[in-house]
Amino acid sequence: MDKLEIVTPTSDPIAEALDYAGLTFTLTGNANWYSQTTTTYYGGDAAQSGLITHSQSTSMETTISGKTSVKFYWRVSSESGYDYLRFYIDGVLQTSISGSPSWAQKTYTVTTGSHVLKWTYVKDSSVSSGSDCGWVDKLELL
Asked: What is the predicted pLDDT for the residue at 10?
């Protein structure tokens, strides 16, 4: 007997880009995050921050429940020290990056229960550098 595999597509393109079907993302700010295939770490696509200009921001967030470990890969191409990709858990800033680092994995432990995960790319009031955006890929919830 051949193996039958049933794949249920996700309805959220950001969840698809992050390789974690079943999540729903809320997009806020001056431009929406989107799925793209040019800059990726895993699986051929990644989420990219929306196109923004000076003094603007763009965010994507989701709520998780019952998980205790959050892992993802991210990178940014921005004005070093001024334009940042930031990660929050329940509204508390965990870390941020700027400049042009390579893909890096981040891992966080959370308590059992419901938590809001949020990634925000934010620009200061002047100067554009690099691609001026951030990327997130390969989200894992354990």
From this structure: 43
Q: Show Cβ contacts of residue 91 under 8 Å, excluding neighbours closer than 6 positions.
A: 116, 118
Count Cβ neighbours within 10 Å for each residue of 46-79 and write b for 16 or more, e otherwise.
bbbbbebeeebbbbbbbebeebeebebbbbbbbb
- Residue 111 pLDDT: 93
Where residue 7 falls among pLDDT bands split at 50, 70, 90?
A: low
Output the six-digit token pair for 106.
């981040």
Place of tokens 């969840």: 15
Average pLDDT, the chain: 93
Q: Dump pLDDT digits (tens) for 38-53.
A: 999 999 999 999 999 9
SS (H, E, C) 66-128: CCCEEEEEEEEECCCCCCEEEEEECCEEEEEECCCCCCEEEEEECCCCEEEEEEEEECCCCCC
